[in-house]
Amino acid sequence: MEFTWKGDYFETEFEYGTLRISGQEEHGFRPFQLMVTSIAVCSASVLRQVMEKQRMNVKDIRVNADVTRDEKKANRISAIALHYIIEGEALKEQKVEKAVALAAKNCPMAQTVEGVVTITETFELK
């Protein structure tokens, strides 16, 4: 990946389009937003794969991310609370709970920040 400074933001090109990154929301995605997005979407994607491999009928997964930042340490991300809202047929809470635990161990983005960012995961079934 190559990033080019464009005055108020950095820019990079991907097959699907241009990504703008800036410390100011009016000029692009903020770096912390991209990090949280990577962790939340990776975690939810791995969870969906785990659930499907375990033959759970998943119709929809949404994930909410609540972010805690530490102002005393350069405003770094210190914690991310992920809450999954899962829709499916005949889902059993205990089986989903095990799938969430397994997915957490297999998400590369979450594992990258392990020991630095506290990630907690909860879920509700619809």
Using brief descriptors, characterize the structure shown.
126 residues; alpha+beta; GMP Synthetase, Chain A, domain 3; 3-stranded antiparallel β-sheet; 3-stranded mixed β-sheet
Protein model, in words:
Pfam families: OsmC. InterPro entries: KH_dom-like_a/b, OsmC/Ohr_fam, OsmC/Ohrsf. The chain contains 3 helices and 6 strands, in the order βββαββααβ. It has 126 residues and is an alpha+beta fold. Strand 1 (4-5) and strand 2 (10-14) form a beta hairpin. The protein has one domain (31-125): GMP Synthetase, Chain A, domain 3.
Give the topology.
Elements: E1 4-5, E2 10-14, E3 17-21, H1 31-53, E4 57-70, E5 76-89, H2 93-106, H3 108-112, E6 118-125
Parallel strand pairs: 5-6
Antiparallel strand pairs: 1-2, 2-3, 4-5
Helix pairs in contact: 1-2
Strand content: 35-45%
Structural class: alpha+beta
SS summary, helix count: 3
What is the CATH C-level name? Alpha Beta
Share of helical residues: 25-40%
Radius of gyration, taken over Cα atoms and rounded to an integer in Å = 17 Å
Number of domains: 1
- CATH homology superfamily name: K homology (KH) domain
Total beta strands: 6
The CATH topology name reads: GMP Synthetase, Chain A, domain 3
Strand order of the largest sheet: 1-2-3
Quick check: average pLDDT? 96
Question: Distance between termini?
Answer: 40 Å
Low-confidence stretches: none
Which H/E pattern describes the elements?
EEEHEEHHE
Main sheet makeup: 3 strands, antiparallel
- Looking at the overall shape, the CATH architecture is 2-Layer Sandwich
User: Any idea what the shape is?
Assistant: globular
Pfam family, one: OsmC
InterPro entries: KH_dom-like_a/b, OsmC/Ohr_fam, OsmC/Ohrsf
